Amino acid sequence: MYAVAGATGRVGSATARHLLADGAEVRVLVRDRERVEEWIRQGAEARVVDLGDRAAMRDAITGCDGLFILLPFDFTVDDLDAYADAVTTSVAGAVADSGIPHVVMLSAGGADLPDGTGPITGMHRMEQALRATGTVLTALRSGHFQEKVGDLIEAARAGVYPVFAASADVPVPMVATRDLGATAARALLSPDATSTSIDVRGPAYSEREVAGVLGTALERELEVVVLPEDAWAPALIDAGFRPHVAESIAELYRAYERGLLAPRADRAVRVDTPIEDTITGLTAA
Ligand SMILES: NC(=O)c1ccc[n+]([C@@H]2O[C@H](COP(=O)([O-])OP(=O)(O)OC[C@H]3O[C@@H](n4cnc5c(N)ncnc54)[C@H](OP(=O)(O)O)[C@@H]3O)[C@@H](O)[C@H]2O)c1
Fold this sequence. Notes:
The protein is an alpha/beta fold. It is built from eleven helices and 13 strands.
């Protein structure tokens, strides 16, 4: 039996679907009771659990062979670090209490570093806390999600494709979340003997190439606008992010520029869903 958190989200749902397709027993962890039925119809068990509830998490994962876990971003909180640490304390406590032998964590490139990477610092601390429980941790260090393009569709419909980087012409590896789900399911089904980290690398695209694909899907020409570094946080605030969140995301973009998110894991896997497929799905949705 494999427990899968975040099953109403992109990577968690893909992980659960891949496990079910492989014939594995799956217990999805959802926090919304209304989402239970859809998983039962697909052949999974379901538990209603909040990741911040250590005792409920322990009960939900006890006896399972493996757990897929993530550190969800919540940009509505007053303190991103305090939120990340509260989720981490609960999840790592539940992992220790339950004695579950294997955890696959959705992490990110740069999670080996303790600071300078914005929201990824929370994933650094979660990796450390999970390793300290004695479980075998497989940390999947993902690069940039292809689905992040979805955040730009509204601006693109108005003809603009903003770029939060020094150049729109540097290719950056981008991963489709369905590929991450497939990778997580494989990692659960064939656990490593000892804790390890894996860079998950997708095909590389420059932002100008992504803008071209998005423009084709939207049937309009997009103006690629490269924002200077000092405009990143203000632009994010204009887009509705709270100032401390905007600063944290701007730090993440600066970390990209400084190479802090480069692959440095124990090994790497390559995945290959092209951005065209992801953008077709996003624009059709
Ligand atoms: N964006 C990137 O480029 C990038 C790169 C590397 C790593 N990551 C990692 O990927 C994560 C996002 O993965 P995703 O796209 O699959 O996420 P997603 O689609 O946003 O889904 C998040 C999932 O977590 C659940 N969740 C949130 N808070 C919870 C709580 N307190 N208790 C229980 N469940 C909770 C959500 O449930 P509800 O449906 O109830 O909200 C949902 O199922 C990020 O948080 C980050 O850790 C992102």
